[in-house]
Fold NAD(P)-binding domain-containing protein.
Amino acid sequence: MSAIVSRLIHSPSSVSRALSSGLLNYGRLLSTESNRVDEPLKVEEAETVKAPPPPSEKLLVLGGNGFVGSHVCKEALDQGLSVSSLSRSGRSSIRESWADKVEWLQGSLLVPESWKDVMNDVTAVISCVGGFGSNSYMYKINGTSNINAIRAAAEKGVKRFVYISAADFGLVNYLLQGYYEGKRAAEAELLTKFTYGGVILRPGFIYGTRQVGSMKIPLGLIGSPLEMVLQHAKPLNRLPLVGPLLTPPVNVTAVAKVAVRAANDPVFPPGIVDVHGILRYSERK
Ligand SMILES: NC(=O)c1ccc[n+]([C@@H]2O[C@H](COP(=O)([O-])OP(=O)(O)OC[C@H]3O[C@@H](n4cnc5c(N)ncnc54)[C@H](OP(=O)(O)O)[C@@H]3O)[C@@H](O)[C@H]2O)c1
């Protein structure tokens, strides 16, 4: 029942539809004509509102100098947000004019003393922190570091927190155990601490132009054609073992757009958004 109420709360248009067609009563609709109890209103996805943010809205991007993080920073600036980034190395190596508008902060999420004031006055956080290595390193970087950030954000009263997680890849999950266990532990913490303002994006392979030092690597040459083919192969995702490997890749600009929207739009529904959800939301105006 609470899920239905929450969906209605997050969809003003469905609430007004509910009110105009009958009375809203504990998640069921009572028709005014016959007092008949109808089935709960089914809302597939809330309609989100795109309004310019007030100038006081401050976004903190964790890992804003990485591949996904730098696209998130750029998108957030385009949306008129004030943006800061925290990472171990601080400033991005990108030499484009938008990068000068980001406040680049240095600190490790695994060393809380190195970033204790960064959440002050922050309205929303997007975490793009994650990585690969030994199992214990992957658990720390994907799990512990994000759990530290989620707890600190909740304590400081941050309203919304978006976490870039990862899609399940079936058998691959066993090979990268620390990575997936870390991701799922951070997701669980987010859903507990940010019941109404926590959004988890679960992309598969993310493609786009990745900056490595002064070089730009166009990963889109592989990702884009695969995305076109695989987004129409959704039923095949349910196949045992191979299904998860057919998760369509997604463009980094689509991930950034949905992440910023989820951080900025108070009616964006909380919870998990899979790759198909990311593709759908990214197409919305
Ligand atoms: N790329 C993909 O295809 C893909 C697919 C699915 C999911 N994802 C997820 O998306 C997220 C972003 O991926 P990406 O490809 O953009 O990775 P990336 O380029 O390696 O970026 C990771 C970021 O995390 C920062 N970071 C690492 N450890 C940190 C720490 N202890 N404290 C603070 N910052 C730290 C890094 O900066 P410093 O090194 O300067 O600290 C960097 O900015 C990750 O969670 C990843 O698992 C990526």
Observations:
- The chain has nine helices and 14 strands.
- The chain has two domains: 2-38, 58-210+246-283.
